[in-house]
Hints:
This protein is α/β, with parallel strands linked by helices. The chain folds into three domains: 5-98, no CATH class; 133-366, Aspartate Aminotransferase, domain 2 (3-Layer(aba) Sandwich); 373-501, Alpha-Beta Complex (Aspartate Aminotransferase, domain 1), CATH 3.90.1150. Helices cover 41% and strands 11% of the residues. It contains 15 helices and 13 strands. The chain has helices at residues 5-19, 36-47, 49-52, 100-110, 123-143, 156-181, 203-214, 234-239, 263-279, 302-305, 356-395, 427-433, 455-459, 464-467, 481-501; strands spanning 56-58, 65-66, 83-85, 150-153, 194-198, 219-223, 245-249, 286-290, 309-313, 323-327, 400-402, 415-420, 470-474. The strands form three sheets. It has a seven-stranded mixed beta sheet, with helices on both faces. The protein has a three-stranded antiparallel beta sheet with strand order 2-1-3, with no helix packed on it. It is globular. The termini are far apart. Homodimer. Its EC number is 4.4.1.16. One of its GO terms (cellular component) is cytosol. It is found in: Cytoplasm, Cytosol.
Amino acid sequence: MVLLHEEQQLVLESLDLCLQLQSSDIGVINDLAEPMDVILHRLAHGQLCLILDSKVISSKTGLVNLQNDAGIVHSICEDLNPQVLDDLEVMAPVSDLGSLLLQVLPDFALQPPVLGLLGSSLCPGRKAKDTINAARESLAKMIGGKPQDIIFTSGGTESNNLVIHSVVKHFHANQTSKGHAGGHHSPVEGAKPHFITSLVEHDSIRLPLEHLAEEQVAAVTFVPVSKVSGQAEVDDILAAVRPTTRLVTIMLANNETGVVMPVPEISQRIKALNQERVAAGLPPILMHTDAAQALGKQRVDVEDLGVDFLTIVGHKFYGPRIGALYVRGLGEFTPLYPMLFGGGQERNFRPGTENTPMIAGLGKAAELVTQNCEAYEAHMRDIRDYLEERLEAEFGQKRIHLNSQFPGTQRLPNTCNFSIRGPRLQGHEVLAQCRVLLASVGAACHSDHGDQPSPVLLNYGIPFDVARNALRLSVGRSTTRAEVDLVVQDLKQAVAQLENQA
Length: 502
């Protein structure tokens, strides 16, 4: 099959957009009629340098994890990926666990109409609509929800902000309607919605709430986490409830420690409390959880969690860097107010032309999680446990502090947050001496704190000097014990080098 010139250009532009590359970086990909895996295979053996300046991060397990100097394209996998290779000839072959975005691109390459506008009644628009609806169904199946309760967003930050925005808007809409009705619950002068959250939430929850509080638009209670369990305690959350409380937002699992929060128990208690509130003429409290870190590492079911809102983030489970928001009984039982106004896409809740290829990739990633979650979880737990065993064996149990271990508390199977005790062993200093390890000292989205320890770890009760030395390693679906051995030896030589400089 030979594509017409115009079709080739459309495919190149689509590939360019999806990979977020500059057109000059694409190189010479002239024959996109080949199956995508054949193209990748060919590029992997000599031409990939035209795209990525010869910079390849390989897990040596068949995954293609790529990053150029500017960081434009990087691995969607959270493997250790320890070895940086400049010789493209030795890169492992492509496997079906490579970029999910590239997995779905053959359809777009051979069928450019998929890229049509969703709102169009013409064939391209119908194809795009079918693609998006199929992805919506896959996401709903992954979390045990209904397709009509899924809204696509740009990512977790937008989803979290959309929930907070909606709760504020709904509070004031209710206050106004009650005032017009002249009932005994007329609006109170200066009344503000009250939010309850924890001190260890992601910045996309913490910062919007802090901003609303500073602007005196909302009141916020930040509940501390237990130094014993590492969790936000249910009783502390219930004790913070006020008549004006409208939302409790607690992450399902912490992104730095992997500690799993008691979201089902919190939801059950809030549900029981809501019966009393409704009887007293007060509106119910809504429940939100940011499930970004947990998806793909453990089963997530909205019915078991009992939440009204759930945030979904694609790149956390090997999908493209977009997201979605689950809203129970969207528009009927749970309010959602748009932050944007435009063409009416996503039933007017999130207008803007849909990013069909990215959404298709997100749907494919969700399918794989639904099919394989237990296997992923078991493998990651085995490798994570082996990593912690090797760290303690090489450095000694007294020198290794496992920051993410709290007795009796469930944690994600992939996350290892630890500190190597020592006066010159701050996390960023150790990483600077590593030769093959690429990792972060905390949350990857804001890991530039220098000598300052993570506020999240300090809120967990980790001592300052220990928290300052913290490193976070996340193993992935394909991480091997051999890679763990390589990383531990790399850390060992880095520590020895720093101590010799003292």
